[in-house]
Amino acid sequence: MRRYETIYILRPTLGEEQINTLIDNTTKIIQSDNGLIIESDKWGIKKLAYPIKKEILGYYVLCDFAGTPEAVAEIERKFRIDDSVLRYLTVKTADVITTEEAETATAELATRKAAAKQASATEQEDDLEDESDDDSDSIED
């Protein structure tokens, strides 16, 4: 297996259900070829650098996975056929990756996301405490 990253841009007018269906179809193609999804991340709607198929916004999706070249070819074939996909790009990030390495990468990613979520929650609590301190200071003055 090899490690790949695929970023694809979908039409912004798609509903959440249609977006999830496209992501699920991509995941099924990878897994049917004994691949492993390391990360699947919805980046959301962003402004495009230039219009693509008369769209100025696009819904970005990142898929980091371990799979075979055949799976990549099938995913890209489906993307070419589907009108809801504006653009896609697949990059090979590693020539060889074992199942154990892919599972380790998935676990590390989950740990990093949990730590980032915890840091964000702590930062929000600190901001709330700072705001309440500022409010109490202004009341006393």
What CATH architecture of the domain at 2-97 would you give? 2-Layer Sandwich
Which ranges are low-confidence, i.e. pLDDT below 50, for 5 or more consecutive residues?
none
- What's the pLDDT, averaged over the residues? 87
For CATH, the homologous superfamily of the domain at 2-97 is named as: Ribosomal protein S6/Translation elongation factor EF1B
* Fraction of residues in H or I helices: 40-55%
Strand content: 25-35%
What would the principal axes of the Cα set say about the shape?
Answer: flat
Would you report the number of β strands? Answer: 4
CATH level-3 fold name of the domain at 2-97: Alpha-Beta Plaits
Count of DSSP H/I helices: 3
Strand adjacency order, main sheet: 2-3-1-4
Could you describe the 3D structure shown?
The chain is of the alpha+beta class and 141 residues long. It has a domain at 2-97: Ribosomal protein S6/Translation elongation factor EF1B (Alpha-Beta Plaits, 2-Layer Sandwich). The protein has 3 helices and 4 strands, in the order βαββαβα. It has a 4-stranded antiparallel sheet.
Spell out the blueprint of helices and strands.
Layout: E1 2-10, H1 16-32, E2 36-52, E3 55-67, H2 69-81, E4 85-94, H3 99-140
Antiparallel strand pairs: 1-3, 1-4, 2-3
Brief overview:
The chain has 141 residues and is of the alpha+beta class.
Question: What brief labels describe this structure?
Answer:
single chain, 4-stranded antiparallel β-sheet, 141 residues, 3 helices, 4 strands, Alpha-Beta Plaits
